[in-house]
Design goal:
Blueprint (H helix, E strand, L loop, with lengths): L2 H9 L7 E2 L4 E2 L1 H10 L9 E2 L2 E2 L4 E2 L3 E2 L4 E2 L3 E2 L4 E2 L3 E2 L4 E2 L3 E2 L4 E2 L3 E2 L4 E2 L3 E2 L4 E2 L3 E2 L4 E2 L3 E2 L4 E2 L3 E2 L4 E2 L3 E2 L4 E2 L3 E2 L4 E2 L3 E2 L4 E2 L3 E2 L4 E2 L3 E2 L4 E2 L3 E13 L4 E2 L3 E11 L4 E2 L3 E6 L2 E3 L4 E2 L3 E5 L25 E5 L8 E4 L1 E2 L15 E3 L5 E2 L5 E3 L2 E3 L5 E2 L1 H8 L20 H17 L3 H17 L5 H14 L5 H23 L7 E6 L8 E6 L12 H15 L10 H29 L2
Parallel strand pairs: 1-4, 2-5, 3-7, 4-8, 5-9, 6-10, 7-11, 8-12, 9-13, 10-14, 11-15, 12-16, 13-17, 14-18, 15-19, 16-20, 17-21, 18-22, 19-23, 20-24, 21-25, 22-26, 23-27, 24-28, 25-29, 26-30, 27-31, 28-32, 29-33, 31-34, 32-34, 33-35, 34-36, 35-37, 36-38, 36-39, 37-40, 38-41, 39-42, 41-43, ...
Antiparallel strand pairs: 46-49, 47-48, 50-51
Helix pairs in contact: 4-5, 5-6, 7-8, 7-9, 8-9
Length: 580
């Protein structure tokens, strides 16, 4: 426009006027003249109505500080060759910077977006500053590219925030940011450090299919719902510090060392890949921020349990997995590879059997307390006539039987043994034997042998059961000895010989009469003492040396065979509980 025409146009503008400058190339003087014409005398700052700047070019600094956009603000495909300054600006309606290119610094510090704000496919070649900005509705940065620092510290997102497929070539700082609705960073790429310290996600946050190529410390931050990391890939060392209701790591790839320190969370590691050691640990106290104060967890106050619960490791190679202070009572283990190399540190809790005595018809059923797998609970709960207290399978858990659970118990037993935790190993040996006894491919003879082994001593793991059988066997032995084994009287020796008439050497033959079967009152104190002596010697695999009837001889032989075995099983069970 000619200068006179331009002056006439600008003089006709009033604060709040609609403007349309699509494709206009702006210099600093031209933009200043435009904003001066729209300056509101009451505030001293420009106030625009509907503003259209699509495809415009700003060759110098574009200074819109404290400007109010009362209508839609359209900056799609705009090119800013120098700085773009929107500090403390207010956008009352829809704002669009889609496909905009910022060659200089882009500053939206303390800006307020009262309606949707879109920066999709925008390119930031210099720092992008959104610290302390407020988005009252949706904010979209899908496919945006940040070549330098992306600064969202203390930013408030009251609507849905979308960073899907965004690329961060520089550091991404979201410290103390607040997300009141779901946040999505799906398929985003982070090439440098990422900071979410003290960020607060009041709904779920998703990093599904995101790529982290650099060393990353994600957190500490709070999420009132679930954190989604499914199919994400971590190529550098990673540290995740978060308090959340859940953490989904399905098919996540960890190509370097990783440490996950969590609170409140239920974790899903199904089909995740660990190429280096990964530690999943429960943080016992709230996280400490860099400022020295404790991170607030008010959004999770409704959850009484601050511990970490592992839901499943199915499809995982556990050779590099370390679990510390994790609740495994509902964890699904079947389908895990190298489970015997799993490392368990601290207090890792497994499910237990039902504690109370239950009646099945006329006979009581009581389960000896031991560690069990969640899958055994599911299998037992699905059986006809199952005792109360076994937890039924949840949707999606699938159905596995004893044939699948026996090798799982065997592998976990070895993991406990390698960790020098013999009581835990004993519980999983018991579980392995239980699954073998109930497996459908076991021959009848082997199942009978296993059933006898279980009944007599709990597979050599239950000292009380073996001692009870030993006491019963000793009592039976004593009763049989008093009733049948001890003779009526102790046989007396007789010496028979002939004295030569003229004197000389006398030869005697010493003989003892055969023991006589008892008659009359057989249960006397003397006979009890003798029977007890015989029985105690039998327990120690020694012969009493007493005269016995034929029946007593066989009774003693039987007791000398059975009772030392029961004593040995009891000793073995005690050793399995106290050995370290």
């Amino acid at each position: 426009m000619a200068d006179s025409d331009r002056d006439a146009y600008l003089s006709g503008l009033t604060p709040g006027a609609r403007i349309d400058h699509r494709g206009t190339p702006f210099t600093q003087p031209l933009l200043d003249a435009l904003l001066d014409a729209l300056r509101d005398p009451a505030t001293g700052y420009p106030r625009l109505g509907s503003a259209r700047f699509e495809w415009a070019t700003f060759h110098d600094d574009a200074r819109f500080e404290s400007t109010t956009f009362a209508g839609n603000a359209r900056f799609e495909a705009v090119t800013f060759h120098r700085g773009a300054w929107f500090r403390s600006a207010t956008f009352r309606l829809v704002t669009g910077f889609n496909s905009a290119i910022f060659h200089g610094k882009a500053s939206f510090e303390a800006a307020t977006f009262e309606r949707d704000a879109w920066f999709s496919a925008a390119t930031f070649h210099h720092d992008a500053e959104f610290q302390s900005a407020t988005f009252l509705h949706s904010a979209g940065y899908g496919s945006a590219v940040f070549h330098s620092l992306a600064w969202f510290n203390s930013t408030t997102f009251q609507g849905i925030s979308v960073f899907n497929e965004a690329t961060f070539h520089g550091d991404a700082w979201l410290a103390a940011a607040t997300f009141q609705r779901p946040a999505a960073f799906e398929a985003a790429t982070f090439h440098r450090a990422t900071r979410f310290e003290s960020a607060a996600f009041q709904r779920k946050v998703s990093f599904e299919s995101a790529l982290f190529t650099h060393t990353i410390t994600l957190g500490p931050f709070v999420c009132a719902e679930r954190v989604q990391l499914s199919q994400a890939e971590f190529r550098g060392p990673a540290t995740l510090l978060l308090a959340a209701q859940g953490l989904d790591c399905r098919r996540t790839r960890w190509l370097s060392t990783a440490e996950l320190r969590l609170r409140y969370a239920e974790v899903d590691l199904s089909h995740a890949v660990f190429e280096y050691p990964l530690t999943l640990a429960a943080e016992l106290v709230p996280f400490t921020l860099s400022t020295g104060r404790l991170m607030g967890e008010e959004s999770l106050a409704v959850s009484p349990d601050t511990g970490v619960r592992l839901a499943t490791v199915r499809g995982v190679d556990a050779a590099h997995l370390v679990l510390a202070d994790v609740d495994l009572s509902r964890c699904l283990f079947t389908g895990t590879v190298h489970l015997d190399q799993l490392r368990l540190e601290g207090n890792c809790v497994f499910a237990t059997v039902p504690p109370a005595v239950h009646w099945q018809g006329w006979r009581p059923i009581r389960f000896t307390q031991r560690r069990t797998l969640a899958e055994e609970h599911h299998w037992r709960a699905s059986q006809a006539g199952a005792a109360p207290g076994w937890n039924a399978a949840v949707a999606g858990a699938g159905h596995v039987g004893p044939l699948h659970l026996a090798p799982v118990y065997r592998a976990l037993r070895k993991a406990f043994e390698d960790g020098k935790h013999e009581p835990g190993a004993a519980d999983f040996y018991y579980g392995e034997m239980e699954m073998r006894r109930h497996a459908g491919d076991v021959p009848r003879s082997e199942r009978s042998l296993l059933t006898a082994y279980w009944a007599l001593s709990g597979y050599g793991m239950r000292a009380s059961r073996a001692l009870a059988w030993l006491g019963a066997a000793m009592l039976v032995t004593i009763v049989l000895m008093m009733g049948l084994g001890l003779p009526r009287e102790t046989p007396k020796q007789e010496a028979i010989g002939t004295v030569p008439a003229g004197g000389g050497k006398v030869t005697f033959e010493i003989d003892k009469e055969d023991p006589q079967n008892p008659t009359g009152n057989r249960f006397t104190g003397d006979r009890f003492e003798r029977a007890l002596n015989i029985t105690l010697n039998s327990v120690l695999f020694r012969s009493s040396g007493q005269d016995l009837t034929t029946a007593g001889t066989y009774i003693e032989m039987t007791s000398r065979l059975a009772e030392p075995v029961l004593l040995g099983l009891a000793v073995l069970a005690v050793r399995s509980r106290v050995k370290r």
